[in-house]
């Protein structure tokens, strides 16, 4: 963001990007995507990565460019990702650096699949890869084999390449008239915000030496520096096909056979995100993978309502456990222990959301924290503890959400009734 010339706004102790900044970044990326060789309106663009501001920026960019976005789960294995890319005939893949190289070239991984391990010769439509959180030069420094050798038929570039050497363009169709000093800021720059992945590095830490915008590993591709970038259609002319045209494809995780896809039209997508909200300030935390519909729709909905969305890190391994547990265990157990929620809530508390949604895994983890607190005081069950002790334990749980929480939502699976009653008691 800083490399793109965006001045980050400080609010509630966090650095935020304004609506104006996000629009500029999204429009710049949209024009670059449409300038890639062979990329035309209506084609498919896959998106994969942990929750950070890059994900919605490229999602918005796909919408502005008239491309059909397709979320790919970080928890999917190679077979599932191969199936999605091949079935959709995706021409562009926007992804994080840890999905590129296999464990043989990169020891630390936060995803279950790697581009290097896919049968790329069968993915005839795929031509371009955009790394969302690292430059190809930085990635190649971690590899024992040149990227050009690994991916001879792909053009590999990065978001940093796209924006660092090109001042973000204003959208000529925009009616935004925001003052960046007072504009409510939508996207959190979560650099230094607590429990975050040790890698890959954030785009807020660019390399000192600029790299070519399109660092080709094979095909030359269309360079936005030398080729005129296309003027995009007006947003109300997207997608191709109007209200009945495709906006996005949603796929299951593939934990029960090949991933199953659903086509989402513009009409259906807009219906999902157009509900009005009446909480002020309207702030939430995004941490459920944006390849799922729930957090992604919530993000769009919050921004449409003039709200803010901050990003918190909850490792992909937790979501892999979540997917496995909800299919193999009694939903009442739904994970054991605290489910690694403590680090996540240290970020939530700092963010101070007014509304947040949690699947059963999160609520159950909080319930275990509550019970562990009582156990440390010598009480085996909540029924054994006096009212004043329960009040202190409940206050501890409430404090994890920060001082502004006003709305709680559960979903994704059935939350145990015992836990639901406990949540209601804690927040009543």
From TrEMBL:
Q: Which molecular-function annotations from GO does this UniProt entry contain?
A: ATP binding; long-chain fatty acid-CoA ligase activity
* GO CC terms: membrane
Q: Which InterPro entries is this protein grouped with?
A: AMP-dep_synth/lig_dom, ANL_N_sf
Biased segments, Polar residues type: 216-226
Assigned keywords, A-Z: ATP-binding, Nucleotide-binding
Residues of the region (Disordered) are 170-245
Q: Which Gene3D superfamilies match?
A: N-terminal domain of ligase-like
The domain of life for this entry's organism is Eukaryota
Q: Which residues form the AMP-dependent synthetase/ligase domain?
A: 10-427
Comp. bias (Low complexity): 191-212
State the name under which the record lists this protein.
Answer: AMP-dependent synthetase/ligase domain-containing protein
């Amino acid at each position: 963001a800083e490399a793109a010339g965006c001045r980050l706004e400080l609010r509630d102790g966090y650095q935020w990007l304004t609506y104006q900044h996000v629009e500029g970044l999204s429009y710049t990326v949209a024009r670059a995507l449409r300038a890639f060789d062979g990329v035309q309106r209506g084609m498919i663009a896959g998106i994969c990565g942990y929750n950070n501001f890059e994900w919605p920026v490229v999602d918005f960019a796909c919408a502005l460019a008239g491309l059909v976005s397709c979320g790919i789960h970080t928890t999917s294995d190679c077979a599932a990702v191969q199936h999605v890319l091949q079935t959709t005939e995706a021409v562009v893949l926007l992804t994080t650096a840890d999905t590129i190289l296999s464990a043989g070239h990169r020891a630390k991984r936060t995803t279950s699949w790697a581009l290097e391990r896919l049968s790329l010769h069968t993915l005839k439509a795929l031509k371009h890869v955009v790394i969302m959180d690292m430059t190809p030069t930085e990635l190649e420094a971690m590899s024992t084999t040149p990227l050009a050798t690994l991916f001879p038929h792909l053009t590999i570039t990065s978001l940093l390449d796209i924006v660092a050497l090109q001042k973000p363009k204003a959208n000529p169709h925009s009616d935004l008239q925001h003052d960046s000093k007072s504009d409510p800021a939508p996207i959190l720059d979560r650099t230094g915000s607590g429990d975050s992945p040790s890698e890959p590095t954030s785009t807020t830490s660019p390399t000192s030496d600029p790299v070519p915008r399109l660092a080709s590993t094979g095909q030359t591709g269309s360079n936005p520096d030398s080729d005129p970038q296309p003027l995009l259609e007006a947003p109300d002319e997207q997608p191709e096909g109007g209200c009945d045209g495709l906006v996005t494809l949603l796929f299951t995780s593939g934990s029960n056979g090949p991933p199953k896809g659903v086509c989402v039209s513009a009409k259906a997508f807009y219906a999902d995100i157009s509900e009005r909200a009446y909480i002020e300030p309207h702030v939430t935390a995004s941490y459920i993978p944006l390849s799922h519909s729930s957090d992604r729709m919530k993000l769009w909905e919050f921004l449409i309502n003039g709200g803010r969305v901050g990003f918190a890190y909850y490792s992909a391994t937790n979501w892999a456990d979540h997917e496995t547990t909800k299919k193999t265990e009694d939903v009442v157990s739904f994970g054991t222990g605290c489910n690694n929620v403590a680090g996540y809530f240290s970020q939530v508390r700092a963010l101070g959301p007014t509304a947040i949604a949690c699947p059963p895994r999160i609520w159950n983890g909080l319930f275990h924290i509550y019970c562990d607190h009582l156990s440390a005081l010598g009480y085996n069950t909540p029924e054994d503890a006096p009212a004043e002790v329960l009040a202190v334990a409940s206050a501890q749980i409430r404090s994890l959400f920060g001082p502004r929480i006003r709305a709680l939502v559960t979903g994704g699976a059935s939350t145990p009734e015992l836990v639901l009653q406990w949540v209601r008691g804690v927040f009543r």
